[in-house]
């Protein structure tokens, strides 16, 4: 496995704060009449895809958009409930573009690219303006200003929100913009279509092969550029907070056609999820990080304490995040909160039937809000019942749908008893490597949102996923794509009869035929579950050299077994979700190996990548900046054969330090 440096991030020259402004003023442009002759393909219509498709169509490009759901409204972006960050400083609490930039780089444990992160912070305010103009119903203060709340890893309030359904409301805004273009005929929308490969002609990406999931028909679509906005790959762990349809196929096919994969081992474990209740479970449910604003996390001070939490006195409770990290308390970044919960449970202080959970308690918040409301309403000497009723009303307004969801799933009322939470796989910071223009190593092929690696380093701060998706789609790609498409006018119309389309389509059909004709004894679901066990146990919240080496061999064996024993019911020319599942699991079986290879290669701990061999005396992640301050960009060569390329990370505007939230 050789290493080399063939990567050019194409970061503009000049001071950090001037790079994006200067870039926008000098980037090549495409004149309006030429835009009508250029076709852009957008794969995925969540926040990144819908915003990109709508904006590019508004600019005059011909756009084709594909999603595997029956409507773009079902994109997994709706699951980002808590909020979206922006450096507006409405609270006058010291926020700024630089502070958002600094918090994001520090939160990512100094493993992200300075120029991209600063640009993200720079355009964050414009995202809020755009969404307000679209009618997104952000929460507001009494005086009419948009309301903000806190999220992990920061000491200001910069998170804009719409109750506990921010992602859904933002997606409806982007969806409205997209549907407007569909109605005008500038966007052709293809629902229930899944991209199964990209077509590369003369070194440039010029199309995709897709499958109509309803009829089974294989289709060819040509474009002068292809934008992959297909989300992350957390479902490689089987149990995750991702929707069950989320997969890596679009990004993985691009990877096998030459797009380097960046930092695949950087996976985020979210600390605020409903614990696993059964080994037959197929999905986990996320309770928004926004709940850590007002909820206090604790475990009993006594091991194996089975008492009802209401019977455990205050002095018998260990508010361990507040104890360990007094400066940030319950709002430490996700990787730190997750590892701390695991440590307490592993030490025997876990709660609930499984003992793999901690409490998230709202009794203090209800009390605090209740007394404040009593004062507002001039209620002197309120009773405890009045205080609780007033406090519950405030909590209900802020988080009501989240509390309702918890009660529906667990049967317990979180207004009355503390929620039980435990970490679970959530977001993937890794993804296709992209340069400053968001272009992959394949010319004409771009990756946006969670599908790329660019902005979050080794750990994403809460409420930054929605920010990145909309920044990429609304405000970055509309500019950067011009630097490529300005030269594509000469290409002219791209014929889908080109031999490259013929060859790629045949390869897709051959793979489908192979899956259908193995006629083994094991369902795709069972293989997926087994892969998930390997990944979670040996490449999850904690990793070590021995476990990773074992995982690589186990995954290779499992993949071999898959191609000999998988059983896919039905045929190719029909609606066949089993076939869709098998195809996606096959890709996960390859990705899993690369994730373990990447984790094995990175002999340090940073952010969500926690190698047990590399930690401080206090159990915190121990980075090795001298040897590992780079992006791992993997080039695919053949089965189980990758070459590592390194993009060195340089920090000219931030002082590198060991992360501390104490």
UniProtKB/TrEMBL annotation:
Record: active site: 334 (proton acceptor)
Sample GO molecular function, one term: flavin adenine dinucleotide binding
Main localization of the protein described in the UniProt heading: membrane
SUPFAM superfamilies hit by this protein: FAD/NAD(P)-binding domain, Succinate dehydrogenase/fumarate reductase flavoprotein C-terminal domain, Succinate dehydrogenase/fumarate reductase flavoprotein, catalytic domain
Subcellular locations according to the entry: Cell membrane
Membrane topology: Peripheral membrane protein
A GO CC annotation given for this chain: plasma membrane
Reported cofactor(s): FAD
E.C. no: 1.3.5.1
Domain Fumarate reductase/succinate dehydrogenase flavoprotein-like C-terminal: 528-661
Catalytic activity: a quinone + succinate = fumarate + a quinol
Domain FAD-dependent oxidoreductase 2 FAD-binding: 40-466
Domain of life: Bacteria
UniProt record similarity statement: Belongs to the FAD-dependent oxidoreductase 2 family. FRD/SDH subfamily.
The protein's name: succinate dehydrogenase
Species whose genome carries this gene: Rhabdobacter roseus
